[in-house]
Structure of Nucleoside diphosphate kinase:
Amino acid sequence: MSLQRTFIMVKPDGVKRGLIGEIIKRFEQKGFTLLNAELMTIDRSKAEYHYMEHQEKPFFGELVDFITSGPVFAMAWEGENVIEVSRLMIGKTDPSEAMPGTIRGDFAAAKEENVIHGSDSLLSAEREIENFFGLLKRRSLEDDFPFEDRKSV
Ligand code: IDP
């Protein structure tokens, strides 16, 4: 087991369809810790950097058009093996192959608009978190607001 961080993003189709709360709920219920979150509309250079490994693919232009077409909900999460576990929770890239019970299996119909992104490795998680949030100022909610204090509010 290892404590990891990952970058999760509700894509414009997921934001439009009101799925932010459902997605946060699944990650919280699993026991992961939300480190940072922001609703933002990203420019093409941030989107191109995010999807740099797909630069040569025929769908790259459409992918960048789509991800910049409206607000996304960007999040950084922390937890044990969160990179691999969140990929399991998200499901396969093509929603028609994603298992029921996964986010894409339950909510998405097409791979061009598949609701959610999750980092696929430690290296990409680090790069993606930095691209969207810069260096995280806040380590976790627990550091700013210990659980003992929360109970007395
Ligand atoms: P992932 O999001 O499951 O990690 P990747 O292979 O990294 O999948 O692809 C990034 C995103 O590019 C996918 O989530 C999907 O929205 C889009 N994509 C992947 N393959 C295709 C394709 O063949 N046509 C159009 N879009 C695609």
User: Anything to note?
Assistant: The CA atoms of residues 59 and 112 lie 9 Å apart. Residues 59, 63, 93, 111-112, 114, 117, 120 surround inosine-5'-diphosphate (CB under 6 Å).
